[in-house]
Amino acid sequence: xxxxxxxxxxxxxxxxxxxxxxVVAAIIVVPxxxxxxxxxxxxxxxxxxxNGLFNELTLDNYADVLASPAFWQALLTTVxxxxxxxxxxxxxxxxxxxxxxxxxxxRAPLRAVMLLPYVAPVVATTFVWQVALNPQYGVxxxxxxxxxxxxxPVNFLSSAPTALITVIVYDxxxxxxxxxxxxxxxxxxxxxxxxxxxxxxxxTPVQKFWFIVLPQLLPTVALLVLFRMVMAFNEFDDVxxxxxxxxxxxxxxVRVFEQLTGSSDIGGASATAAVMAVFLGVALVIYLRLTxxxxxxxx
Amino acid sequence: xxxxTTQSSVLRVLRVVxxxxxxxxxxxxxxxxxxxSFVRIDDLLRDPLRVLPALDRITAETYRxxxxxxxDGGYGxxxxxxxxxxxxxxxxxxxxxxxxxxxxxxxRLRFAGRSQVSWLFLAxxxxxxxxxxxxxxxxxxxxxxxxxxxxxVIAYIALTVPVSVHMLRNYLAGIPxxxxxAAVIDGASRLQILTRITVPLAMPTIMSTxxxxxxIAWNEFLFALLFLxxxxxxxxxxxxxxxxxxxxxxxxxxxxxxxxxxxxxxVILYGVAERALTEGLTAGAxxx
Lengths: 299, 288
Hints:
Distance between the termini of chain A: 43 Å
CATH superfamily of chain A: MetI-like
Number of domains of chain A: 1
CATH topology of the largest domain in chain B: MetI-like fold
Strand content of chain B: under 5%
Distance between the termini of chain B: 35 Å
CATH architecture of the largest domain in chain B: Orthogonal Bundle
CATH topology of chain A: MetI-like fold
Largest interface: A-B, 99 and 100 residues
Structural class of chain B: mainly alpha
Low-confidence stretches of chain B: none
Helix content of chain B: over 70%
Order of helices and strands of chain A: HHHHHHHHHHHHHHH
Shape of chain A: globular
Oligomer: heterodimer
């Protein structure tokens, strides 16, 4: 009986997966290949419209990208931004998860509330931040000048380097719930017995955290670093919506967007994206190598 | 012993301070949004520090203005909300319809290319969405789907499928395969196993998958910007809010009312299904 189903296993499996694979291939993989091909062509929209993908092949775009100071600046900004938001959001998420570890009244509803910045629409939250930080009518500047005695309102989103710092703070605010959620789940999974044994042996709470809890959380932290780095490296919405890429906040994907929409330089934009993807890929491989060694050692 | 007691009491205080600070930091921006949505713009400009409007100055005119259609002197958010709802419902229903069979096959069946499929889904995250969005937009223009809600729905499915497959696959892997085998012995076909056994058993996770893709679709901004910018009658709420905020002519408190309208559906849905959603997303995280 079962063998009848086994016989068709391959066919059934392929049939059931095919629709999803087709959609992902059409919407994700084809565009990526398209991008890579175009990055080797000196193409603008008109050329693509006339010749499709069959323009003359060239390395000019890559030469332009690598020789452009603006590209290196964008790369530096992206790296700074990604590292700062990743470290910041995981650190805050870890503190939050530890604070919420033991039961207290209203723990469940408060935990749910803490995830709001992550689930709320990015357009709405960036808009609220923009209004709150506005020099004319924002509450933060009103509070600063009227109560804290600042001499001038601060242009949080339109002057360097505060703009980049503000974007980073916003993203820590938006993404710490993500780390909080995962680290909270990992904390509930830990067995309390080892900790109790350590307490019996006279370990202080800080020692208990440092030598017992933290090492057990490291696999989750490593996974979160990976997630957050990749997502932050390609982040577009948050930066674009907050500053439009002005005042030293032009990260890579905003630069790609401007190359596409502003100067309609498809080839250049594609090359920028391809170089960034290579950087990200190399960073990922190095990171996976390093953490793999770590994983071996802890075993 | 004394270091232990001092550390414990310091940590106890720090813990309360941390919880209060974090809750305030997350909630205050939302309260600010809600409060400003009832403020008249001249009151805000006169005294930005007055976050809570005086009782006799509270207005709901902002909501009327933002919801009313352009003919009635408003900004058409009622229509934007309808567009967003159509797109998000369609995207989440289709995502579930596609993902359930795929997740079933990936956990239960051995077939050619099974492991490659998982790698394919990871590729999504290596490139910025912008680089995917532009070719998709150009391609859809050729097919006549460029400036349409249908095109947007297809794009959103592709964006949500990878995480949805992951969520469902984790859950299905936890259901014993022996249940399937028992059904096979009773003479059930593959389709019957899928519809009569897998789907009912996985219903909670299916719901949270649907919810997850609804949220992604409702909140999404970049694809909507590229696809629909030129067609104001098709704008989603996210797009409508940013387009109107770019200009100077719409008052900020009216747009705050728009932000509330954009946020409230998500908060309600999230409130209903918070547990299922967080458990679905973090499934497998404790395994390291």
